[in-house]
User: Fold these one by one.
Assistant:
Number 1:
Amino acid sequence: MTATDQDRPPISVLLPTVRWTGACDEVAGQLGARDELLVLCDTDDDPVADRRGTTPDGVRIVLAAEPEGCSGKANAIAAGMEAAAHDRIVWTDDDFAHPDDWLATLNADYERRGPTTEVPVFVGKDPLSRLFEPAYAIGGTAAVFAGGIAWGGAVVFERDDLARPESVSDAAAAAAGPEAALLADLRRTVSDDGTLTEYLDVTAADRTRTVPAGGSIRGSVERFVRFFRIVRFHAPRAAAFDVAFAVSSAVLCLLAPVVGAGLVTAIAAAVYARFGVRRATFLLAFPSVLVSPPLLAYALARRTFVWGGRRYRWRSLFDVEVLPV
């Protein structure tokens, strides 16, 4: 145990996944002697459950059970919070690279400024998700950085940092405290990070993580629908602004294509430059703007979406039905 390990509080890292991925090895290799990594899956049927008894030191497999009335990820995070042994918590995902200093850097961020989130940059793996990259840079990367939004892929906080929002309607959970209310909300909604943002004042680190997105046209459409639902239910004013901005930008690009193309491309280029995104996809801002209104209309009209092998009907913030795919 190093002096640094002795001086800082131990950390519980929560990582939802159904398979043992490279991210599991990366995070496990960064644990201090008193830290723990909880790999969160649903049931014994998940491949990662077979790793029980053979995991590295400090790693536990936690079975969250099948979700009922919430997403699989939100259910897994709630189970992980209950199983975690420590007060300092890190949430992360299995779909991006965790460099050797990732956990130490995130912990150092907490020591300097309290609850901290890193910032995602979504990189497309199929034609449609690549077309979405400028929109995700503006509405995802820049929004997380500027809007006090917790990204569930890399966020650190302590249990005492949680504060109950006025929107909590479960009287029993509210009386039990902010953490109980958070877990109750997670078990009746879809978005883990959207829900955490309701309970946590978080600062964004000026640091990004590249997250692969999509892989198929169908998957990219489902992701778009899910992302819009998250904004719609957790930040309805922002959703209304997004729709108005998309429609007005598309109208401008249609009526004055030279001016419109130049403006939206310049905005995307500025966001890319601000966050060090070295990809030529900012040039797709113009066609991205043109397809945004019909995609938003589709997202508004859709009644269900697929995520992680499950289909969800998400009617309102705390009204979720899990359906067979």
Number 2:
Amino acid sequence: MAVKLAAPELLRPVAGVRLAAVAAGVRKASRDDVVVLELAPGSQAAAVFTQNAFCAAPVALAKDHLSATAPRYLLINSGNANAGTGAAGYAAAEACCAELARLAGCEASAVLPFSTGVIGELLPVERITTVLPAALASLAPEAWNAAAHAIMTTDTVAKGHSVSVMTAEGPITVTGIAKGSGMIHPNMATLLAFVATDAAVAQPLLQDCLTSAVAGSFNRISVDGDTSTNDACVLLATGKGGVNIRDLSSGVGEALQGAVDEVCRVLAQAIVRDGEGATKFITVQVEGGKDRHECAQVAYAIARSPLVKTAFFASDPNWGRVLAAVGYAGLAGLSIEGVSVYLDDVCVVRGGARADDYTEVRGQAVMAQDEITVRAELGRGNAKTTVWTCDFSYDYVRINAEYRT
């Protein structure tokens, strides 16, 4: 079950983008599992990918195609990750791109492939290529919601968000969709996410915009500490909305960055809220570090601790588990006497020990909520960071134990 999360009611069309979702039976019959996204000529793309050494075939091919030309099409499938499939997997991704390119009349390098699902099984090329004519025939600018549903795997809720902002040069629209529920931990973006804007943005600026947005969103979430083989986050700019971004520090540039930041942050938090078996949405704030890096070390030590996460599932204010995570995060010269820990506004630990005014009743009241903030103050400096995570429930084990059945 998702924590205070509902599928988006409205995802705004982005001028220069059309989408279609079709059913290919990649893993399950009678559900949409292939998405084709078409971009207007002249569009630009920026992307970040998984840092997992066993990156999937579509990741490798998408990188190769991006280095060759600007994309005209994205081809996305759920149900099969096409990862751990070696040269045959790369050839399968190439075959799918080549067929879409043939049907659409473009170069194969102008098609970017993305896959999500079971690792270690070869992509069923014929099933995908068979439905491509139907996908091209049904492309529509309003199909963002259908696409958001088609890319789901263990997700229980489709994830999407739109922002429209007015600038001195005119309106800018940013719409994005994402999928992710398990195997979520940053070493890039921990999911599949596709974000588009109608602004005109040169590719280097677009890459800077995406890198900044990912740093404060997709690279600040963790469900289970596992980094996927298939992570990809793509930002597309069609230039069909009339606003030209030449400098991200300009008024219009800051408006675009703010809109992309919001879309990525909402999508990233939606992934955590829909974490496999999640019953609680947890914000981990670490303050008083020497730099953001060590704050992140502590934040992730807390966020990925199975003992901390199971305590949250049980609504148990077992603050010793949080304190232990702070201690093993690896900070050189950490003075425990300078550490304080809070559950929401309730001080649990002060001076490295249980706070004198803390009571179990107050801690229990916070832990009974489905949204909780854990705040750790390190007393070493002025740096801070925020990470979002969720609890571990019985259902997390069940979902992953049954994933291939």
Number 3:
Amino acid sequence: MSLLRALVGAARSARHAPRLAAGFVPDDDVLLDAPDERLAPALVAAALADPEPAAKLLATTRDGSEWEDRDRYVTRLATFAYNRDEWLTHWLDAAPRDPDALLVTAQLAVRRAWESPARAERLRDLAPLIGAVAEQAPRDPVPWRLALDHARGAHAGHTVFESLWAQAVRRSPHHYGCHVAALKYLSAQWYGSHRAAFDFAEQAADDAAEDSLVRALPVRAAYDLLRVGPADDGSVPAARIDRAVDRALVLSAAFPAGDPWPAEVRNLLAYVLVERGRWREAREEFGRIGPYATSFPWRAARGSVPEDPSPSSRLRSSRGDPLLGFLAARDRVRAEVARRTPLWDTGVGRAGRGGPGGH
């Protein structure tokens, strides 16, 4: 019977895989961490050691209280400065007290400290810098997101964490970056538990607006759980994980396909759908992602996507390469949906857990 099943599966894959591939952006058109139309010119100028576009961009987000965009831009600019910081040095030389330049500097310093063997000690040394950045921007939640990340690595206790969290939500009650930072602190990998993380994420999602990315916070908690072990360890029922996925699917469907704004949430959702074996829904989510692959979660993928009996060598060699990991997972999804689609089915198949290819 196993040989017969294998032969039937191979026949289904040969028949349906090409048609299923037609719903995806071609591999060569997939972009990794593509900047939006506002950030791209700032990065081009930074490559030429010119900080002015970055300074104007961050000033605009600060003046307009565009906190979600501001958080993304600060993180991306600090990532760029990690290897090419001449532009940031020029900016600081010209405006040493500029709150935006100091925020990027603090973000960069925290990243470098996190990578040090003496992480906790180096992070503690940065406390005055982070405090100064927060004081210079009394309305801005982004320094407090950075402070929450700093507190986690510096082994700050729950009292410190709760104080920082109160400052963050006072400035922006539903800021996605601050919620992710808090969720990490409360995770089982750090100072909480899987149950505590889910409780926090679900309450935050309940309180958020319908189009807020915070609505997808429970699927981030699900990702953290799936990263460290099986979903049936007893701390969080599998049904709770699937409810988190269902909630994120509703949020994703509310945005246009190929929209770069929810790209990271959609990539995260696709990863969890693959982990849960929800193949048809995963295929639809990869279609919504379009060309916008993100390093997270694929850079950190632990290689737990089930081994592919089909010829996808990318799946075995993708560890550490987020773009290859994204493409390998997409290949896997297409193969799994094809293998589960009856030979006589001339459509793509119905999505959902109730049809073939669900759980």
Number 4:
Amino acid sequence: MRVLAIILACLALGVAGLYALAPRPTALTQADLPQDHQPDLENGRRIYFAAGCISCHSGSSDAAAEDAGLPIGGEAFKTPIGTFYPPNLTPDPETGLGKWSAVDLANALMHGAAPNGALLLPALPYTSYRNTRPTDVVDLYAYLRSLTPVKHPVPPHDVPGLTLLRPLIGWWQELAFRTEPFQPDPARSEAWNRGAYLVRGPGHCGECHTPRNWLMIADNSRFLAGGPHPEGQGRVPSLRGLIERGEFTSAQDLADALEYGEAYGYDGLSSGGMGEVQANLSKLPRQDLDAIADYLASLPALPN
């Protein structure tokens, strides 16, 4: 019994240590944001659709008809660990982001931290959003502030053990953030780098199209190589070798698919999981779609 008591005491100390020593992200301050940048609402709108914000933050079925199309949150997002209810992104001060500052949004998107310091679960894909340029975050914030405020509370997340899990997210972030944030490749064209930025940052394509390890951290050695669907059912295809595999005839053909989807006969691009993605991408300027296609078309297929 004495040995058992010692073992249990050691386990308790170990668990307490995990909580006490859990890493915390370094919070951004107002000084970390561009000081001379004038917010660009049109660019904020572009980032909003590139990031697909409305896809996750659309209203639940009980939302009023006049609020359709606004990111009022509440639609259930089911994952293997539980059900999340994405929050209201409109500038309502009680149920939305009305009391948030641009720094608060930047900390959430780039460090996975809420204004009160609580660590956010990566159902918010901040491992990709951390690649977003600070100027684009400021523009996105300005665009969200321009939306009609809607008072629409959402249910709390239904994730078993969330209260116990949340303080430990810092350890997960410590591992997930080991990959350096995106940097342009000076050997590549401006268009290619723009496409790489949109795919790796705001577009967060890797969140679904990159396989994950047992800790649910993306295996970036197989970036965009496809894998199990993050919601737990089915698989998502590889985005590599799209031209070589005959999925598309050229980068321009791929850009047409992103812009027009099944309306132009591109099967599977306006339905299923890609339906809302394509609907969002179709709102981007053609030059952005060309850039995304240029980048994706350059990625070689991987073995197996």
